[in-house]
């Protein structure tokens, strides 16, 4: 069983994907970490994020066994990842790796922005997780504060809207719900409510395909 979770920044897709993976005993991949890792490589080299040749080289040589997730989180990395993710050859370089992860015999849970549309178009279930920009900014603001990053809420909201525009407007694999995705709006849902709704979507999809 392959579960594809897509959605914009801070929609809750990552949290739901992790919980669904535990619930169904499946491996989980946060594909956003791949783009963050590419961006981290460029930043560590002092290279510009929009240098296509260097970004592709970083993507092709990515060593996922040595990712330091603590260095891939935070506001700076989210913005940087959005920049490199808009480079078509970078996305192409990472497609095969993501599909290989999804092809495991037992299946997998993957979350990102193009899982249901590009990476796993034949996924067992596709869920598009969304929430209002204001609510997503509040969540990200709390998350950043918990890490000690004192960023004004207004700046976080501006970042969210900028990322939405970049992710939805790129020419390659834009952020969009697959035609057969099940929409899950988490604006007014707590974590447990959102998880139960996601499980209901998965079970409904399994019954339809039985």
UniProtKB/TrEMBL annotation:
Provide the leader sequence positions.
none
Chief localization: cytoplasm
A Pfam family hit: Cytidylate_kin
| UniProt KW Kinase keyword | yes
Cellular localization per UniProt: Cytoplasm
Record key words, sorted: ATP-binding, Cytoplasm, Kinase, Nucleotide-binding, Transferase
Q: Which InterPro entries match?
A: Cytidylate_kin (IPR003136), Cytidylate_kinase_dom (IPR011994), P-loop_NTPase (IPR027417)
Q: Which domain of life is it from?
A: Bacteria
- The entry's ATP-binding residues are 7-15
GO CC annotation terms, alphabetical: cytoplasm
Q: Could you say which EC number(s) this protein's record lists? A: 2.7.4.25
Give one GO molecular function term: ATP binding
Q: Where is the Cytidylate kinase domain?
A: 3-202
Q: Write out the transmembrane intervals.
A: none
The enzyme's main class, written as a single word, is transferase
Reaction catalysis annotation: dCMP + ATP = dCDP + ADP; CMP + ATP = CDP + ADP
Task: Return the SUPFAM superfamilies for the record.
Answer: P-loop containing nucleoside triphosphate hydrolases
| Example of a GO biological process term | pyrimidine nucleotide metabolic process
UniProt similarity note: Belongs to the cytidylate kinase family. Type 1 subfamily.
Q: Which HAMAP family match?
A: Cytidyl_kinase_type1
Q: What is this protein called?
A: Cytidylate kinase
The opening ranks of the lineage are: Bacteria, Pseudomonadati, Pseudomonadota, Alphaproteobacteria, Hyphomicrobiales
The gene from which this protein is expressed is cmk
């Amino acid at each position: 069983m392959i579960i594809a979770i897509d959605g914009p920044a801070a929609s809750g897709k990552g949290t739901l994907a992790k919980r669904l993976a535990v619930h169904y005993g499946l491996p989980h991949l946060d594909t956003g970490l791949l783009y963050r890792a590419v961006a981290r490589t460029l930043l560590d080299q002092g290279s510009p994020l929009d240098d296509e040749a260097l970004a592709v080289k970083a993507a092709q040589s990515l060593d996922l066994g040595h990712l330091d997730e603590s260095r891939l989180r935070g506001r700076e990395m989210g913005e940087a990842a959005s920049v490199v993710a808009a480079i078509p050859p970078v996305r192409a370089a990472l497609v095969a790796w993501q599909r290989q992860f999804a092809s495991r015999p037992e299946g997998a849970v993957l979350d990102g922005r193009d899982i249901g549309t590009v990476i796993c178009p034949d996924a067992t279930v596709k869920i598009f997780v969304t929430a209002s920009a204001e609510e997503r900014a509040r969540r990200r603001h709390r998350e950043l504060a918990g890490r000690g990053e004192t960023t004004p809420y207004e700046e976080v909201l501006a970042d969210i809207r900028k990322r939405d525009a970049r992710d939805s407007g790129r020419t390659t694999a834009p952020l969009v719900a697959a035609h057969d995705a099940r929409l899950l709006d988490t604006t007014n849902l707590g974590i447990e409510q959102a998880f139960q709704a996601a499980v209901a979507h998965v079970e409904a999809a399994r019954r339809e395909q039985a």
